[in-house]
Amino acid sequence: MRSPIVLAAALLALSCTAHAQTYKSSAGPLAVTTVASGIVHPWALAFLPDGRMLVTERPGRLRIVAKDGQLSAPLDGVPKVFAVGQGGLHDVVLDRNFAQNKTIYFCFAEPVTEGETTGGRTAMARATLSDDKLDDVRVIFRQEGPLSNGGHFGCRIVQTADNNLFLTMGEHFISRDEAQKLTGHLGKIIRIKPDGSVPSDNPFVGRDDAKPEIWSYGHRNPQGAAIHPVTGKLWETEHGPKGGDEVNIPQPGKNYGWPVICYGVNYDGTPVGSGKAEMPGMEQPIKYWVPSIAPSGMAFYQANLFPKWKGSLFTGALVGEMLVRLTLNGEKVTGEERLLHELHERIRDVRVGPDGALYLVTDNQAGRILRVAPAK
Amino acid sequence: MRSPIVLAAALLALSCTAHAQTYKSSAGPLAVTTVASGIVHPWALAFLPDGRMLVTERPGRLRIVAKDGQLSAPLDGVPKVFAVGQGGLHDVVLDRNFAQNKTIYFCFAEPVTEGETTGGRTAMARATLSDDKLDDVRVIFRQEGPLSNGGHFGCRIVQTADNNLFLTMGEHFISRDEAQKLTGHLGKIIRIKPDGSVPSDNPFVGRDDAKPEIWSYGHRNPQGAAIHPVTGKLWETEHGPKGGDEVNIPQPGKNYGWPVICYGVNYDGTPVGSGKAEMPGMEQPIKYWVPSIAPSGMAFYQANLFPKWKGSLFTGALVGEMLVRLTLNGEKVTGEERLLHELHERIRDVRVGPDGALYLVTDNQAGRILRVAPAK
Q: Of A6, A158, A197, B324, which residue is most buried, by most CB within 10 angstroms?
């Protein structure tokens, strides 16, 4: 009677030994498995209630990843994107009431031609996902300001408990001074309702010299955003230049300093703006990195698979080629653990799966979705 | 009594579903598993008798891959390489009598400074692998001719039953006419003994106007080579320009035509050399590709895991991002199957494992070793 068990155990060993590579961490050895591969520059991941995933490919495709890792054909209905430089299809998130309304939000660099110039601006759309296709695709926000030629789109979306949406936007690299101008959307985090209208309690509502969608400003290239699971507040990460990546907790109407103050320097080594890192009227980050790691997607960890890591903030790193875990005490960062550098992967997004594992996407022409779980 | 079995089966399902992605092929669905990852631009793979593998990283590191996928520290003793452009540490193979003599051969772009210019030339070394380190490292061949600034090193090694070694070499891209000159080693396949001396039956031995190491000439950038398992003959693949990749069976003393004849055109669309694809005194490939696929490492398949594929020739493709299977009838190519394009990986090398599976290495900053086996 024991042989079938032994057989099953042997099968288990046989089919999984090829994946036995493990990686050190403060929570014990980590097993990293490839959930899906061959994804062209994946940018963002969103879990569907049935355990499947949505994944964006930066060149402009949205796909569904089956539980066995098979990729669907690209879903019809994604608007044309400006797939130049860092631009293309970026974040995707499910509406809080997705189970009822099947609504998703996604953002992208939208191609715009002005005179003889074509460039990109960030846009956000909503759509209904039914029978594995997109219906009722509607652009609910279009950025105003100078075009990007491929740099610094930002482009993370998060939704708060009141259903409002935050969208982070970069300053297009070539237009850094725009981040201080309230008359445009570059270098800003905006807050809108799910229908694209402006919440009446936004900080600049009613002012003639400011865009009403603006929540906070003075941002450089914010590519990570998440809602704190206890306080409900927005947290974001952004790329500094040579040094000066930041974690901020953006408050309404506040100025986060770019390109006036910064903990880094320009790529050529010259000082940024004032040459100072602090200035009255401008906010300080709760954490900064020198040298830069290029933080990307981020996620608060509240699940049970890694009990030691409950309450941590995870962020991927592109240039840093790693997963970073920040330990927190309220709104203070108390520690940093650098993980999975051995993979040498540019980590573009981090999400916590329904199973409590961490899911990463790798920014690569042959990108993958990786599952990170305790090695057992 | 059934519950332990069910539990084991459930465990099996749980721990392996993440790897269930399969790919279509003429031999049924293929399962592709990641054996090791985080390898920086791996170039070549060689199985050790104990089931471990040697892997080269183009920047200049040789590592041992344990059966569980763990990478060793870089082995001491690898000479400094010219890690510029396509250059660096390239192929590695075991001596036919490795079990007795622990000898390996590897080739690399060697940095050379002449006056104010530093560039690279292909070199081949032998060493003894003992206790996971290299001893008695000795360069047994150094290419003569103009320096490379990073292009077209070729660099595959194969050993024949008489222990002689073939080494393929490119024409450095900037020195294409050298491929027709017998006074230097660019664009040549050479044949030497394991101690670096010249076999007396080499075709140009005794001629004043030719290098005695030369076996065949007129090659562009030969990056794949293997010995036919039945005939014992050398087969090679090489990169054409825009179109014109080739499979050849190089005969001693013969001219393979580059840059005089070619099935492709220059990258700017202009004709190559004579503008013709055939010419008296120059050999024809047994297969050519237009457009180019950029063929890399190759292997004849003689194992039993894929009975249908016995006798096939496999080659990786870089630009083509796939594994190519050629069906053969003697020395004729009768068919071509294109596999695993869904992975979007630049396949740099293909080897057949002791288990009969195909092992691929992916040319990527976060490169992997992949095992390809029937999905069961």
A: B324
Q: Annotated active-site positions of A, please?
A: 152
Residue B123 region by backbone torsions, left for phi larger than 0, else alpha for psi between -120 and 50, else beta: beta
Is the model's pLDDT at B5 over the cut of 60? no
**3-class DSSP state for residue A66?**
coil
Tallying the residues shown for chain B, one arrives at: 376
ipTM of the complex: 0.73
- Find how far residue B43's CA is from the centre of its chain: 8
d(CA B237, CA B65): 27
At residue A1, does pLDDT exceed 90? no
Could you identify the residue written with the tokens 């990108």? A367
Give the Cα separation of B374 and B31 in Å (integer).
Answer: 6
Query: Within a 13 Å sphere around the CA of A260, how many CA atoms are in the beta-carbon half?
Result: 17
Q: Report residue B208's pLDDT band, with 50, 70 and 90 as the boundaries.
A: very high
CA distance B143 to B84: 17
Q: Residue A184: CA atoms inside 13 Å, Cβ hemisphere, count? A: 20
Please tell me the distance in Å from A35's CA to the nearest CA on chain B: 5
Burial class (CB in 10 A: 0-12, 13-18, 19+), B186: buried
The predicted model gives B41-56 an average pLDDT of: 97
Find the residue in B nearest to A68 (Cα).
Answer: B20
Residue with tokens 């306080």: A231
What tens digit of pLDDT does each residue of B81-116 get?
999 999 999 999 999 999 999 999 999 999 999 988
What single letter denotes the amino acid at residue B234? Answer: L
Query: Which residues of chain A lie closer than 8 angstroms to B348, CB-CB?
Result: none
Which residues, 6+ apart, have CB-to-CB distance to B81 below 8 Å? B59, B60, B87, B88, B89, B108, B109, B110, B111, B120
Using a CB-CB cut-off of 8 Å, the residues of chain B touching A11 are 12
**How far is residue B101's CA from residue B45's CA, in Å, rounded to a whole number?**
19
- What pLDDT sits at residue A131? 82
pTM, to two decimals: 0.83
* Omega within 30 of 0 (cis) for the link into A291: yes
Distance of CA A188 to the CA centre of its chain: 15
pLDDT at A20: 62
Asked if residue A190 has pLDDT above 60, the reply is yes
Min CA distance, B301 vs chain A (Å)? 21
